[in-house]
Amino acid sequence: MATNIGIMDAAYFVGRSEILAWINSTLQLNLSKVEEACSGAVHCQLLDVVHPGIVPMHKVNFDAKNEYDMIQNYKVLQDVFNKLKITKHIEVSKLVKGRPLDNLEFMQWMKRYCDSVNSGLQHNYNPRERREVCKGGKEATRKSAHSQSSNKGSTAQRPPSSHNSRRNEASAAANHATQAAKVAKPSSAAAPAYDEQITELKLSIDSLEKERDFYFAKLRDIEILCQIPEIENSPVVAAMQKILYATDDDGTAVAEAQAMLSAAHEEVERLSPIAEVSEEKSSSETHKRKSISNLEFDAAGVKNLSPRQRLSDVSDVHCSESPLMTC
């Protein structure tokens, strides 16, 4: 049973036309694109074909238009996978967006799995009857039947009225077929080139979306950092938020942010003389402390002198103060 299929398996080389023909013939639908099955309802019914009674079809919504309803279908599909112990990972976020490559790859896997179960044989399975219990199932059946009838009506030919008219119509049809063949040759030759270009464009879009998400996450991290209470009121953070929340692309946000930083810098310079005055006060207080410490040191030295030395110092002072006194 093919639950895990390698990326180089032959299942992933099955074309879109073959996949669509398999879906439409198995479920009696009339899908024109693989991505029309992005709602997940088709996948659920395909499993119901190979595992009758396992899928709760009354929970499947064929009328799913938004992603929420589509996700509910994929939840049903995941529950069935768990019951059957299928380890295939379902990329729901990519499938619901209707990307052609992702939906084609998953549908290729579905075909490979269904073919591996009883060789994909159906045992008295009526897809239209099973869809009637689903939400929007009758509408999907009606649309497919209407599309098939309109296609048959457009391709039907009018009955000939006479031998001459039959011959004229035959010759006109032959000329039309010849012209169509001439026109179809270059278009059929150019089809692979167009498909390759479309695939390259879709891959480039995917890479650009990943790059966009990466840089958006970086900006979100910066925004969270700027909301820290310790720094949210600083001028630098205000300038960064000015650029982050700018709605115009004319470059004025950068100029305004630079002006905010310049104004904050000028404000700091204007307040700087106050700091110089405080430094002068602190230096004068330091000088006073040094003078007081010197006086205390001198007083301590006087205490340590002998009485004779103290008397000698006093006499020296008297002699120096009075010019009339002789020593």
How is this fold's topology laid out?
Blueprint: H1 16-27, H2 41-50, H3 67-84, H4 92-95, H5 100-116, H6 127-131, H7 137-155, H8 163-226, H9 235-244, H10 252-270, H11 272-303, H12 307-321
Summarize the amount of helix as a percent range: 55-70%
Q: Can you give the mean pLDDT?
A: 76
The CATH homologous superfamily of the domain at 10-150 is termed Calponin-like domain
* CATH architectural label of the domain at 10-150: Orthogonal Bundle
Total of DSSP H or I helical runs spanning 4+ residues: 12
Please summarize the sheet with the most strands.
none
Biased composition (Basic and acidic residues): 128-142
Protein name: Microtubule-associated protein RP/EB family member 1C
Keywords: Cell cycle, Cell division, Cytoplasm, Cytoskeleton, Microtubule, Mitosis
Family: Belongs to the MAPRE family.
Explain how this protein is built.
Belongs to the MAPRE family. InterPro entries: CH_dom, CH_dom_sf, EB1_C, EB1_C_sf, MAPRE. It comes from Lotus japonicus (Lotus corniculatus var. japonicus). Its main location: cytoplasm. GO terms for molecular function: microtubule binding. The protein is an all-alpha fold. Among the domains are: 141 residues, Actin-binding Protein, T-fimbrin, domain 1 (Orthogonal Bundle), CATH 1.10.418; 50 residues. 69% of the residues lie in helices and 0% in strands. The protein contains 12 helices and no strands. Helix 9 runs antiparallel to helix 10. It is elongated and about 115 Å long. The chain starts with 15 loop residues before the first helix and ends in a 6-residue tail after the last helix. The C terminus is likely disordered.
